[in-house]
Amino acid sequence: MNPLQLVFYFLIIVPSAIIHEYAHGWMADRLGDPTARYAGRLTLDPRAHIDLWGTILMPVLLFFLSNGSFLFAYAKPVPYNPYNLKNHKWGPAMVALAGPLANLLLATVFAFLVRVFPASSLVEFFYIITYANVLLLVFNLVPIPPLDGSKILYAVLPDSASGVRDFLERYSFVLLMVFVFFLFDFIAPVIGWVMKLLIG
Fold first, then answer.
1. What is the pTM assigned to this prediction?
2. In angstroms, what CA-CA distances link 155 with 20, 60, 100, 159, 181?
3. How far apart are CA 123 and CA 5, in angstroms?
4. Which spans in the chain are helix H?
């Protein structure tokens, strides 16, 4: 990936991350928590979602550290209060799942365009949008805080497994960095499988 592709990819993954965060706030609002709405975060305006580290600095750093092989970005997390949710057990998991599902929806739409217009001059653009959203979908489902997968994991863990949650929360940053730089290849086949499923 050359610097021009970096800019191109950056302009795709950031809006996808913003839609991801918007979906969290939208779902929380539907489930009884208006925190995101009151904070002015139920909007697709990028100014409300851009995070200096996650949206700008980290993607550039990852690009150079991985020699252009890996790029990831996230938007400023949308605030929500789980105690306001109507369902205290499954509500947080549903809010968490809304983000990846938004990326799945985007990926599905643009994968459809790839399949319907394979000769279009925009097909590469459609393909990259599909891939970026599949990446966000799969990566965010990894069960390491603060990724969405951790909230889903917490919902299914029995009360007796509280030690697992405590461990993940305590070492979340270290675990996430180890995963990004050393274990990312474990989800690469899943990303490839989803891409094949969507595009063929």
1. 0.88
2. 20, 34, 16, 10, 27
3. 15
4. 3-30, 35-38, 58-65, 91-116, 123-140, 148-156, 162-170, 172-178, 188-199
Q: What is the CA radius of gyration of the chain?
A: 17
> 55-64 — which CB contacts under 8 Å span 24+ positions?
55/14, 55/17, 59/10, 59/13, 59/14, 60/6, 62/180, 63/1, 63/6
Render each residue's pLDDT in the chain as its tens digit; 200 residues. 566 666 766 788 889 999 999 999 999 999 999 999 999 999 999 889 988 888 888 877 877 777 766 667 778 889 999 999 999 999 999 999 999 999 999 999 999 999 999 988 889 889 989 998 999 999 999 999 999 999 999 999 998 888 999 999 999 999 988 998 788 889 999 999 999 999 98
Bond from prior residue into 77 cis (ω within 30 degrees of 0): no
Q: Which tokens belong to 154?
A: 């917490």
Q: Give the closest residue to 9 by CA, choosing from 132, 180, 102.
A: 132
Number of domains in the chain: 1
For residue 80, the enclosing domain spans 3-199
